[in-house]
């Protein structure tokens, strides 16, 4: 490009456009980074060859509530509420409490389910779950 000065003389611009040079240098830098092999660090470990131990599932107990609000504890019908509360006290007294699952029938009364759940919590049962219908 030419610039006009006040003397009406044409001067040549002698600046260098460095943008293409920077582009080429960045491309070369990226190619260099890609081609450099990654240094991997590894630690040699002696792995065991033993058989995995069999893990027993934690013990669980089931309180089933039938459609007519009949309560059974581990497939045995409970005579009255006091007997069920005594079973809850026995569970709470154990150092490693089993999980207590409450399995209501879909036609069972909500009040009965809520009372059983509240009694179990009040008497100290810590691991309580509710089972749904499959």
From TrEMBL:
One of the record's GO cellular component terms: plasma membrane
Membrane topology according to the record: Single-pass type II membrane protein
Principal location class: membrane
TM regions (residue ranges): 20-38
The UniProt record lists the keyword Transport: yes
Free-text function comment from the UniProt entry: Involved in the TonB-dependent energy-dependent transport of various receptor-bound substrates.
Protein name (Swiss-Prot/TrEMBL): Biopolymer transporter ExbD
The organism of origin for this protein: Commensalibacter intestini
Lineage of producing organism: Bacteria, Pseudomonadati, Pseudomonadota, Alphaproteobacteria, Acetobacterales
């Amino acid at each position: 490009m030419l610039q006009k000065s006040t003397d009406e003389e044409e001067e040549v611009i002698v600046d260098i456009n460095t943008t293409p040079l920077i582009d080429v240098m960045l491309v070369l830098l990226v190619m260099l980074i890609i081609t450099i092999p990654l240094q991997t660090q590894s630690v040699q470990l002696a792995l065991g060859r033993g058989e995995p131990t069999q893990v027993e599932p934690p013990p669980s107990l089931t309180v089933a509530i039938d459609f007519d609000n009949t309560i059974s504890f581990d497939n045995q019908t409970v005579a009255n509420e006091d007997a069920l509360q005594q079973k809850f006290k026995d569970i709470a007294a154990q150092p490693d409490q089993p999980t207590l699952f409450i399995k209501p029938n879909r036609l069972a009364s909500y009040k009965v389910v809520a009372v059983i759940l509240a009694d179990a919590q009040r008497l100290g049962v810590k691991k309580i779950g509710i089972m749904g219908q499959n």
